[in-house]
Design brief:
With 260 residues, this protein is α/β, with parallel strands linked by helices. It has one domain: Alpha-Beta Barrel (TIM Barrel). 41% of the residues lie in helices and 17% in strands. The protein has 9 helices and 8 strands. Strands 1-2-3-4-5-6-7-8 form an 8-stranded parallel sheet. The longest helix is centred in the middle third of the chain and has 18 residues. Bound molecules: zinc ion. Zinc ion binds next to loops.
Length: 260
């Protein structure tokens, strides 16, 4: 049993074969998926998936790319969605200085605002951080998430990881940990405490080896589990089991509440 803690299965690329994707996922022991919003519409789709399928859970939030689209109305609607018991996190939120699709001051403002909202409604946060390490660190120190959080597709150094671990964050690993040039990520994946790591696909992006470049899907989260097992000299079952417990812990999911 594996929990893919970060995916976007509401993406258009699954329109033609959504049920096949789910069938493959089930057959390969992927028992839970957190579908993550990046704007209001995708947050609504994530909640719909979580309502329609037992094994889907939702995260809702505004990605830094979409920060500029936010209006007062957006917050009201997200707060409404947050009441759904299958919404387990606020995200993905953060900063992206690689593509800079929204002006940086607006990205920061929207990031901070969402940490405050997550604190208000009692949800952990899911952080997207691309080439913005320093500002992300400053913000999470100045506005600590009261219910914890996840650095999704962790890409920073081991030095930064140590600070984040001290602050209580979980680190989530995706396809890049299987890539040849992923020295830093591999170092973190090898050294982070076993009770603070998660696995994800970020489907349809970041497809792990050996399928890099093709569309991703939750089934391939097994490649991440396999890689972590190799790096840490553990069995695949062990990594699956531990990362499942970690996900239950960060998402505060009482096992008996929602049996899958
Ligand atoms: Zn994502």
């Amino acid at each position: 049993m594996i929990w893919d803690t970060h995916a976007h299965l509401d993406d258009d690329s699954y329109k033609g074969d959504f049920q096949d994707v789910l069938a493959r996922m089930e057959a390969s022991g992927i028992s839970r998926v957190t579908n993550v919003g990046y704007d209001l519409a995708s947050s609504e789709r994530s909640v719909t998936l979580a309502q329609d399928y037992d094994f889907f859970y939702a995260a809702i939030g505004i990605h830094p790319h979409n920060a500029e689209e936010v209006t007062e109305e957006t917050w009201g609607k997200l707060l409404e969605l947050a009441k759904n018991p299958k919404v387990l996190a606020w995200g993905e939120i953060g900063l992206d200085y690689y593509r800079d699709l929204s002006p940086r001051p607006i990205q920061k403002e929207v990031f901070i605002q969402q940490i405050k909202l997550a604190n208000e409604v009692g949800l952990p946060i899911v952080i997207h951080n691309r080439d913005a390490h320093q500002d992300v660190m400053e913000i999470v120190k100045a506005y600590p998430p009261r219910y914890g959080g996840i650095f999704h597709c962790y890409s920073g150094s081991w030095e930064m990881a140590e600070i984040l671990l001290k602050l209580g964050f979980y680190l989530s690993f995706a396809g890049p940990v299987t890539y040849k040039n992923a020295r830093h990520t591999v170092e973190v994946a090898r050294n982070a405490p076993m009770d603070r790591i998660l696995v994800e696909t970020d489907s349809p992006y970041l497809t792990p080896e050996p399928r890099r470049g093709k569309r991703n899907e939750p089934t391939y989260v097994r490649e991440i589990v396999k890689k972590l097992a190799e790096l840490r000299n553990l069995s695949i079952e062990d990594v699956a089991e531990k990362t499942m417990r970690n996900a239950e812990s960060v998402f505060r999911l009482v096992y008996t509440r929602q049996k899958v």
